[in-house]
Design the sequence.
C-alpha cells in the first residue's frame, strides 16, 4: 500500500468513528438509528484491514474480541427485556417493556428505553461485520 | 415535475440492470450493479425516506467490496456459453413463468392504492402513540425499538448466526498445520 | 398514470430472474439474486410514498407524514439479503478451490 493512503487513513479514522457513534447515540432525535451508525463504524474498521494488513489489526482488535463484544451486546439486550417483564410498570408487564421514565421532548435522555437499545445494536452490528470481513479476507486459496 | 424525475431515474436503473446481466467481464458487471444500487439511493431521496437511504448506501458499499474481494481470488471473466439447444427446458420454464407473472401482475396492480396516497391503517395509530406516549422524535426508531423490538432482537441474532455460518464454511482442516507452514 | 409506475419494480424483478435462470457463471447468479432483492425494496418504498408530505420525523405543526412502517422493515430486509450474499460468496470460494472453475454446467456434470 502506498504511503499516501496510509497517511490519509490516519487522519480520516477519528472523525468518521465519531460520526458513526454520534448517529447511534442520537438515534431517537435525528434520522438514523443503531443499525446505520453501527455499519458506518464497521466500514471504517474494514478500511483499516485493507490498508494496514491483517496482521496489524490482529494485534489490536482480534477476531475473538470482536465476536465477544458482539455476543455480549445481544445478551445484555435479552437481560433488559427480562427486566421489563419483572413488572416495574404496574399495568404493563411484558417482554421488552419500556420502563425508564420519559424525559422532556427532544432531550438526549428521553424516550424511555430506546437510546440504550440503539447503543447496544450499534456495537453488535459494528463488531459483527468486522469479524465477518476479517474471516473472509484471510482465507488463502490453495493453488 | 417530480414524477418526471422519478421516471427518468427508473429508466436509468433498468438500463443499468440489463447491462449488469449481459456483460462478459465480471468486474464491469459488478460496477453496473453498484450503479443500480446508487440510482436506487437517489430514488429513495425523492420518495422522502432518510433511514432507508443511509442503510442502502452502506450495504451497497459493503457488497461491492465483498464481491471484488471474491472475484480477485477466483476467475475474473465469464467465459461460458449459454445453454445449447439440447437443454432448452430451463429457458422455456423461465419464459413461461415470466409471461404468467406479467399477466397476473397487470391484473393485480388495479387493486393497489394509487401512487401517492397510501392506506396507512396501522401507521396512523403508531404516529399518534409515538407523539403522546413515548416522547422520541424519530418515529421510525421508536417503532423499531419499542413497538417492534422483537424484530431488532432477531436481526442481531441473525448477524451472529451469519458469522457462525461463514466460519464453518471457510474452515480449513488442520489449521495449525497451515499456520506453521 | 395512477398505478402504472409499479411496473418498474416488476421489471427489475424479472430481469434478476432471467439472470438466475439463464446464466451459467456463479457470480452472475449472485448478481441476479441481488437485483431481485433491489426490486422488492423498491416496491415497498413506492407503496409508502405520500405526496406533499414530509419524512417521518416529528415537527411542530406538520400534518402529513409518509408511511413510517416500511421504513422500519426495509433495513432488516437489506441486512438479510446481504447475509445471504455473504454465505453464497463463501460457498463459491470453496467450489472454486475444488473444481478450478466457476462454470455451473461443468460443476453439475456427473463424474465417470
Sequence:
Amino acid at each position: 500500500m502506498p504511503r499516501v493512503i496510509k497517511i490519509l487513513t490516519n487522519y480520516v479514522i477519528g472523525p468518521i468513528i465519531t460520526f458513526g457513534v454520534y448517529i447511534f447515540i442520537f438515534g431517537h432525535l435525528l434520522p438514523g438509528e443503531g443499525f446505520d451508525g453501527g455499519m458506518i463504524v464497521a466500514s471504517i474498521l474494514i478500511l483499516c484491514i485493507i490498508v494496514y494488513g491483517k496482521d496489524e489489526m490482529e494485534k489490536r482488535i482480534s477476531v475473538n474480541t470482536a465476536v465477544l463484544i458482539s455476543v455480549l451486546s445481544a445478551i445484555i439486550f435479552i437481560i433488559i427485556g427480562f427486566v421489563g417483564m419483572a413488572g416495574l410498570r404496574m399495568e404493563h408487564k411484558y417482554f421488552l417493556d419500556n420502563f425508564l421514565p420519559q424525559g422532556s421532548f427532544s432531550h438526549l435522555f428521553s424516550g424511555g428505553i430506546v437510546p440504550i437499545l440503539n447503543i447496544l445494536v450499534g456495537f453488535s452490528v459494528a463488531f459483527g461485520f468486522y469479524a465477518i470481513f476479517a474471516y473472509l479476507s484471510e482465507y488463502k486459496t490453495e493453488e | 415535475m417530480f414524477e418526471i424525475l422519478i421516471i427518468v431515474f427508473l429508466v436509468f436503473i433498468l438500463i443499468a440492470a440489463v447491462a449488469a446481466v449481459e456483460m462478459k467481464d465480471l468486474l464491469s458487471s459488478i460496477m453496473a450493479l453498484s450503479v443500480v444500487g446508487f440510482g436506487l439511493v437517489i430514488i429513495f431521496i425523492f420518495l422522502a425516506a432518510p433511514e432507508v437511504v443511509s442503510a442502502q448506501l452502506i450495504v451497497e458499499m459493503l457488497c461491492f467490496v465483498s464481491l471484488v474481494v471474491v472475484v480477485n481470488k477466483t476467475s475474473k471473466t465469464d467465459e461460458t456459453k449459454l445453454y445449447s439447444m439440447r437443454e432448452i427446458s430451463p429457458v422455456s420454464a423461465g419464459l413461461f413463468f415470466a409471461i404468467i407473472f406479467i399477466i397476473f401482475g397487470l391484473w393485480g396492480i388495479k387493486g393497489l392504492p394509487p401512487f401517492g396516497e397510501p392506506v396507512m391503517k396501522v401507521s396512523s395509530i403508531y404516529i399518534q402513540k409515538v407523539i403522546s406516549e413515548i416522547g422520541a422524535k424519530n418515529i421510525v426508531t421508536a417503532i423499531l425499538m419499542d413497538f417492534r423490538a422483537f424484530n431488532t432482537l432477531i436481526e442481531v441474532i441473525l448477524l451472529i448466526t451469519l458469522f457462525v455460518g461463514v466460519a464453518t464454511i471457510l474452515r480449513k482442516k488442520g489449521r495449525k498445520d497451515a499456520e506453521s507452514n | 398514470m395512477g398505478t402504472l409506475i409499479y411496473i418498474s419494480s416488476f421489471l427489475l424483478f424479472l430481469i434478476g430472474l432471467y439472470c438466475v435462470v439463464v446464466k451459467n457463471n456463479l457470480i452472475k447468479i449472485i448478481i441476479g439474486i441481488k437485483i431481485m432483492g433491489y426490486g422488492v425494496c423498491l416496491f415497498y418504498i413506492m407503496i409508502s410514498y405520500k405526496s406533499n408530505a414530509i419524512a417521518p420525523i416529528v415537527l411542530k405543526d406538520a400534518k402529513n407524514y409518509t408511511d413510517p412502517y416500511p421504513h422500519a422493515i426495509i433495513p432488516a430486509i437489506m441486512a438479510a439479503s446481504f447475509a445471504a450474499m455473504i454465505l453464497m460468496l463463501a460457498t463459491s470460494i470453496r467450489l472454486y478451490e475444488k473444481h478450478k472453475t466457476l462454470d455451473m454446467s461443468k460443476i453439475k456434470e456427473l463424474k465417470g
Q: What stands out?
A: Chain C touches chain A at residues 55, 57, 75, 79, 86, 89-90, 93, 96-97 (CB under 8 Å). The radius of gyration of chain C is 20 Å. Residues 68-99 of chain C form the longest helix (32 residues).
